[in-house]
Amino acid sequence: MSKQPNTYAFIDSQNLNLGTQRTGWKMDWRKFRKFLRDKYGVTKAYMFIGYMHENESLYEYMHELGFLVVLKPTLDITSKSSDKDDDRDKAAVKGNVDTELVLYAMKELPNYERAIIVSGDGDFFSLAEHLEGQGKLAYILAPNWQYSSLLKPFEKKIVRLDQKRRQLAYHDRKDKNRKDKD
């Protein structure tokens, strides 16, 4: 029996979360961590998230599931609406984790044999290219078909998670029970 290579996952949580929600579903984080471990042999799964105080319980939950949570301070960004008739400001929270993800992937390079990048963001092209050159890029897990065209050179290594929806989707049991009672 051959030993499975030591594999780390580097997860852009915002890209993954928004990418699945855009296609009409939510990720079940417990199922996703198990999927990474069972399907790809992921021993360490770094989850990069913009920090918001009100999400403390989420971070703790992710940690309990086996993710190594890396928090990045967020910025409140207020912008004017693009609608000429709308004077209201749009509030947004920005927690750009790209730099941290690349830094960790490079810092940990001697500790893993294979890496999985979980994002469809073209900002990770250089990281993917470097890992490929080192023989360490296992896969890029993109949330859906709308991943960056910059990642096209790695098409053979791209796994679309929207195609794994049945396996990975969160189902609210309380909601289902409520519908059954109506």
Show the helix and strand layout.
Blueprint: E1 7-12, H1 13-21, H2 29-40, E2 42-51, H3 56-64, E3 67-73, E4 75-80, E5 89-94, H4 98-107, E6 114-118, H5 125-133, E7 137-142, E8 158-160, H6 165-168, H7 173-181
Parallel strand pairs: 1-2, 1-6, 2-3, 6-7, 7-8
Antiparallel strand pairs: 4-5
Provide an overview of this structure.
The chain has about 180 residues and is α/β, with parallel strands linked by helices. It has one domain (about 5-75, about 90-180): 5'-nuclease (Rossmann fold), CATH 3.40.50.1010. It has helices at about 15-20, 30-40, 55-65, 100-105, 125-135, 165-170, 175-180; strands spanning about 5-10, 40-50, 65-75, 75-80, 90-95, 115-120, 135-140, 160. The strands form two sheets. Strands 3-2-1-6-7-8 form a six-stranded parallel sheet, sandwiched between helices. The longest helix has 12 residues, at about 30-40. The N and C termini lie far apart (about 55 Å).
Q: Order of SSEs, N→C?
A: EHHEHEEEHEHEEHH
CATH class: Alpha Beta
Instruction: Tell me which CATH architecture applies here.
Output: 3-Layer(aba) Sandwich
Taking pLDDT < 50 over at least 5 consecutive residues as the criterion, the unreliable ranges are 177-182
* Major β-sheet profile: 6 strands, parallel
Strand order of the largest sheet: 3-2-1-6-7-8
Give descriptors for this structure.
7 helices, 182 residues, 8 strands, alpha/beta, disordered C terminus, Rossmann fold, six-stranded parallel sheet
